[in-house]
Amino acid sequence: MKLLEGKVAIITGSGRGIGKAMAELFASEGAAITVNDIDADVCKATAEELKKNGFKAIACKADVTKDEDVKKMVEDTVKAFGTVDILVNNAGITKDAMIHKMDDKLFNFILDVNLLGTIMCSKYVIPIMKEKQYGKIVNTASVTGLMGNIGQTNYAAAKGGVIGFTKGLARELGLSKICVNCYGPGFIETRLTAVKADGGDRSALGMPKGIHDTAIAAIPFGRAGQPEDVARVALFFSSFLSDYITGEVISVSGGQLV
Ligand code: NAP
Q: Label partner for 53 (CA 20 to 30 A): which of 28, 100, 164, 241?
C-alpha cells in the first residue's frame, strides 16, 4: 500500500536539497507533486526528472514571499491535479552574521523567506482544505529555532516563529480536520551546510570548515543527516499515519537536540 496514493502535494523549495528528496519520496508513495522553487530551471529539472520516472508532477516557479506568485502556484496545482491535500513549507534560507553586524535588510529577508513564506503558502491552501475537511500542512523549523545558534539570530527568530505559527494554526484548524505539524532538522548535508572557504563572505550559503566539523562533532550519531532522513518525517506528517497528531514538533537531528 502506498502512503500517499491519490494525494496532491505542494512542496516549496523542492528543486533541490531536502525538498527534492521529499518530492521523490512523496511521488514514489503515490502523490502528484507541485515542484516549487524560486529558480525556474531548478524546479523544471526536478519536475521533468519525476515525470521521466513515471510520476505526476508540475513545475511552479514562485517566490514564496510574493502573494501573487503563491496564489498562482496554488491555482496551477488545482488546475493540474484538481485539489491540494498536502502542503510542505520547505523553502528556506540562511544568511548568517553576528547581531551587531546584521543590517535590518538581512534580518528581514530571512524572516520573509522562512516565516512569511510559510504563512503565505498556508493562507492560500487553507480554504481548499477547509472545504474538503481534510489537509496536512507540514512546516520546516530547525533545531536553531529551538535552541538558538551564534550568528543566526535572524534564522532562530524565523524558525522559532514557524514553531509558534504551527501551534497556533493547529488549534485554529483542528475542527476542520487539518493537521499542522512541524519538524526541525539538525545538521543535514545540503548546500546550506556545505563547507565554504574560510574567511569568505559570512552571509553566503554554507559554512567554514571549522564550524562544519565542530557541528558534526556535537551530533551523538557522529554524522550529518541526509535529506532522506528529513523526507521520511515529512512523509509521516503528510500521511494517515499521523492523523491524530497536530501542533507537534519533531527534531530530526541525530540526537543533537535531546
Ligand atoms: P537548499 O538546498 O538551499 O534548498 C532550499 C530551496 O529553497 C532552494 O532550492 C531554494 O532556491 C529554495 N528557495 C529559497 N528561497 C525561496 C523562495 N523565496 N521561494 C521559493 N523557493 C525558495 O536548503 P535545504 O538544506 O534543503 O533546506 C530546506 C529547508 O530545511 C529550509 O527551510 C532550511 O531552513 C531547513 N533546514 C535545513 C537544515 C540543513 O542542515 N540543511 C537544517 C535545519 C533546517 P534557490 O536555490 O534558487 O535559492
A: 241
